[in-house]
Amino acid sequence: MSARRFLALLAPGMVPGDHFELDPEESLHATRVLRLKAGQRIQVFDGQGAEYVADLVRVTPRGCQCVLVSETAAVAEPAIPVSLAFGLSKKNATDLIIQKAVELGVDALYPFFCEHSVVAPGTPAKESARLERWTKMIRDATKQCGRATLCQIHPPTPLSQYVAQAQGPESISILCWEKAPSKDTLSAVLTERVKQKPTSIRLAIGPEGGLTDDEGKDFHSADYAVASLGPRILRAETAALAAVTITLASLGEM
Question: Cα dihedral sign for 178, 180, 182, 186?
Answer without folding.
Answer: negative
